[in-house]
Fold this sequence. Notes:
This protein has nine helices and eleven strands. It has helices at residues 15-30, 49-62, 76-88, 99-102, 160-163, 178-189, 204-214, 244-250, 253-263; strands spanning 2-5, 34-39, 68-71, 92-95, 136-139, 168-170, 193-197, 220-224, 227-228, 284-288, 293-295.
Amino acid sequence: MISRFAPSTTGEAHPGTLLSALLVWLDARARGGQALLRLEDIDVTRVKQAWRDQMVDALAWLGLAWDATIVQSARTSRHEEALDRLAEQGRLYPCSCSRADRSGGRRAPDGGWAYENTCRAKPLPAGGWRDVHDLAVRVRLPDDRVELVDDGGMDLSQTPAHDLGDPIVRRRDGAIAYQLAVVVDDGDAGITDVIRGRDIAPSTATQVLLQRLLGLPQPRYRHHFLLLEPAGDKLAKLHGSIPWSELRARYSAGELLALLAAAANLIDASPQTFDWARVPTADKVARWDGRDLVIR
């Protein structure tokens, strides 16, 4: 059993980040498996080295030791090899559509606007995907339905090519897109179990189809509850939601672990007592009142 915690390094860690890390770590240790840390830092417009370093520091401060640390930006060659394999299958195409073009159309399972595969007929230039400039590159998915229920009982079944539309695999700015990178990285690391927040659940069927196209094994999935801001949005690093620097100034590592474990209805933050049956499925609200973290 090999699991991973894969945070983006786009801001300070917050209680939701740390809760997810704790659940991944507890699950792996309770089952005698490995837990890897993967720092997802390929979004060149948002990541900072300081936030990457701070993420490592925050997890170490909590006492969450990982069996290996992977830096996603060091894996560009593997991502590009995957693009080459998809191109050989004739599945890549350039896309000029913007988010504004999709706005007001058909809603997707993730709450955004579905992409209608408008540019599917466009061919790559003679130089292939590397010769696409200032346009996104998408992968034409098979029109297959994916039947899938995760380990927590969440139905993830979709026909991704229709429900969400063909995903971007290389962005306009040249960065490898999340959907491709996560599939390649999980495959290369031998990930058998993916534990992550339920906000990522709508992407799972798309990732399963990419795994099939690339000949990669399909992990088991489980999607846990989220910590939300009082307004209802999920806590976000990009928004600076209850940053770790403030939490560290208020709590010891043990105190914060106890708070996070209590939020997950766990007896404590020990692998010996960990049980998914105790973990709630409903999201909770996290508030910072200037002195204390309150999660209800």
